[in-house]
């Protein structure tokens, strides 16, 4: 089983020193195996055939015991090196998986069930263990020790050597046939496990919704079907394993039996061979076949592990494609935009700054971007965003507007650093936003969504999560009061030490939003991102939140996804997004006068308010 170039090949390149030690120890293991057989044959010859006195064969037995101990230590050392390689492999693979999953969390959330991806990062990585801990050492041993035994047998007795030479290939041939089937079933197994994990996690998270809509029983049946499919996949692999063991044992017994029969004929019937030689060969032959048989068992486990490694590779390839978004697609999208402008199919309004004006504006900007583009995945039909170039002045109140699905949230996530652009650059305070600068950037922002996540723990702990520095209870209290949480907390028996459930269970929507605002008050960020957090709240709660947001925004740059007219009108700068393109920027009055699409959207919203 030759590893293909990729994740496995890259890792094994880093383990050359350890695999070199395994080869060296395997050579020593072959010498010890042959020495053990020779010493045992000599001891039996002197004790039972020559009836030698004890003083003659005692030294041989002592040396034999020493050789056996040394052989055991070498075999243990080989296995120990394999375990260390496996530990490094699991640490490396899991680190890569988690790095991809945390680098693009929003993107991965859009690409399928989280439970399935977590299953790959945890279960598939663990399943890869046997490739390195068992298969790799055994394959190296099999490439050295059986060959040494075969050479010795040929020297002792050519016919026996020929029997070994002609019967041995049946074992790797059978291994290859079984291995192909094993790897296929292993990949099916991990696919079924990922589906089962994803369905189960989705069901647990949405249990209340399923119950309210009367879908709990149907979802239970789906989970049961996923579970049975995973069981069937696992049993299929076990079936192949049992077949593999039975076939290997049969081949080994037949091989040893043929050699033993041939030796018996030479020793008893034709009397052309000495007992010592026949017995030595008879001791070496099982070692030869057992080594190949152990490789066969390890080969099965290795194929199963290889299926897990291929699953991990598929996840990382998916992440790579999602993170990069092919340049050819970007080029074709740019050409399409250019052609659209030439044909007059859409109105593209110049952005706030261009060329030297943009460079000049950056000196006083908090955020600026150049030729910013993003695409979900690398398929042409996937959603893409083209945001051009823009600089946002420090202290500005910016609103991102557009129809549903236009790309507002994607643009906000790009600016906030939660998504990585497919092309172009994002700068904050004249520094490019790179992975190295990400931590510094995130320290200066707060992002309040419509559904902020509340962790299981006390209210004080949930507020303090906004910053990694040590905060006092007085600071937490001040932040809560500024966010309008004081009244709620005084009504609770345990106040700030009140425990809330995971996801904010026990808190209303408005209370969760105020808790999120308290986090921002505690952090005092330079840039605030809002995803219209007042949507769906009652008028009283909305008024409280708006007052708190206004106070919080006094000394910060504010960028918000706006759905309501009063938010749009109050903005210093409006970014109008349509069909994945930032088509215009300006004030409310400027866009009303120059952008028909924007004016039509505003008229529609006014009619909805009046209705």
Record keyword descriptors for this entry.
elongated, 3 domains, ABC transporter transmembrane region fold, Rossmann fold, 24 helices, 611 residues, alpha/beta, four-stranded antiparallel beta sheet
Report the uncertain regions: 322-358
Specify the overall morphology.
Answer: elongated
Radius of gyration: 35 Å
**Mean pLDDT, rounded to whole units?**
80
Overview of the molecule:
It holds the Pfam family ABC_membrane. The chain crosses the membrane at residues 21-44, 56-74, 139-156, 162-180, 236-261. This protein is of the alpha/beta class and 611 residues long. It has three domains: 7-320, Up-down Bundle (ABC transporter transmembrane region fold), CATH 1.20.1560; 354-364 and 395-444 and 526-611, P-loop containing nucleotide triphosphate hydrolases (Rossmann fold, 3-Layer(aba) Sandwich); 454-524, 3-Layer(aba) Sandwich (Rossmann fold), CATH 3.40.50.300. The protein is built from 24 helices and twelve strands. 36% of the residues are buried. The model is unreliable at 322-358 (pLDDT under 50).
Concise overview:
It is found in: Cell membrane. With 611 residues, the chain is an alpha/beta fold.
């Amino acid at each position: 089983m030759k590893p293909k170039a990729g994740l496995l090949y890259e890792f094994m390149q880093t383990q050359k020193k350890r695999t070199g030690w395994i080869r060296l120890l395997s050579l020593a293991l072959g010498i010890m195996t042959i020495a053990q057989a020779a010493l045992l044959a000599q001891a039996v010859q002197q004790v039972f055939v020559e009836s030698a006195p004890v003083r003659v064969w005692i030294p041989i037995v002592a040396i034999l015991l020493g050789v056996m101990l040394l052989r055991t230590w070498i075999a243990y050392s080989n296995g120990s090196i394999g375990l260390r390689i496996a530990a490094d492999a699991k640490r490396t693979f899991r680190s890569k998986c988690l790095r991809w999953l945390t680098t693009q969390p929003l993107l991965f959330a859009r690409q399928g069930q989280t439970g399935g991806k977590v299953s790959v990062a945890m279960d598939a990585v663990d399943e890869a263990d046997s490739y390195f801990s068992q298969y790799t050492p055994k394959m190296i041993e099999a490439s050295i020790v059986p060959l040494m035994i075969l050479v010795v047998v040929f020297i002792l007795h050519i016919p026996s050597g020929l029997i070994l030479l002609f019967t041995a290939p049946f074992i790797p041939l059978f291994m290859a046939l079984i291995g192909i089937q094993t790897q296929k079933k292993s990949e099916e197994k991990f696919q079924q496990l990922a589906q089962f994990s994803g369905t189960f996690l989705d069901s647990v998270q949405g249990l209340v919704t399923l119950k309210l809509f009367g879908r709990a029983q149907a979802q239970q049946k789906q989970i049961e079907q996923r579970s049975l499919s995973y069981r069937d996949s696992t049993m299929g692999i076990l079936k192949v394993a049992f077949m593999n063991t039975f076939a290997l044992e049969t081949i080994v017994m037949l091989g040893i039996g043929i050699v033993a029969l041939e030796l018996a004929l030479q020793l008893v019937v034709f009397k052309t061979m000495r007992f010592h030689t026949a017995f030595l060969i008879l001791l070496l032959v099982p070692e030869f076949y057992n080594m190949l048989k152990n490789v066969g068992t390890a080969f099965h486990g290795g194929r199963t592990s290889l299926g897990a490694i291929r699953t991990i590779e598929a996840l990382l390839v998916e992440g790579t494609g999602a993170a990069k978004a092919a340049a050819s697609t970007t080029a074709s999208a740019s050409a399409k935009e250019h052609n659209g402008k030439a044909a007059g199919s859409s109105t593209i309004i110049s952005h706030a700054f261009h060329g030297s004006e943009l460079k000049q504006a950056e000196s006083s900007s908090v955020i600026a971007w150049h030729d910013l583009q993003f695409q979900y995945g690398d398929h042409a039909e996937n959603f893409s965003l083209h945001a051009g170039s823009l600089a946002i002045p420090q202290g500005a109140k910016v609103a991102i507007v557009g129809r549903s699905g236009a790309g507002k949230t994607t643009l906000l996530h790009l600016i906030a650093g939660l998504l990585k652009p497919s092309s172009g650059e994002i700068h904050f305070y004249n520094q490019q936003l790179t992975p190295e600068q990400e931590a510094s950037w995130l320290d200066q922002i707060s992002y309040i969504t419509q559904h902020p996540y509340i962790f299981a723990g006390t209210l004080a702990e949930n507020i303090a999560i906004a910053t990694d520095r040590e905060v006092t209870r007085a600071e937490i209290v001040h932040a809560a009061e500024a966010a309008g949480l004081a009244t709620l907390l005084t009504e609770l028996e345990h106040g700030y030490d009140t425990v809330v459930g995971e996801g904010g269970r026990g808190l209303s929507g408005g209370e969760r939003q105020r808790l999120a605002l308290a986090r921002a008050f505690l952090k005092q960020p330079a840039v605030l991102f809002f995803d219209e957090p007042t949507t769906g709240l009652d008028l009283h709660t909305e008024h409280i939140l708006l007052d708190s947001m206004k106070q919080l925004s006094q000394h910060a740059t504010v960028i918000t996804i706006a759905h309501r007219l009063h938010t749009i009108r109050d903005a210093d700068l409006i970014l109008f997004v349509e069909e994945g393109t930032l088509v215009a920027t300006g004030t409310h009055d400027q866009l009303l006068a120059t952008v028909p699409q924007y004016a039509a959207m505003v008229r529609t919203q006014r009619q909805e308010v009046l209705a």
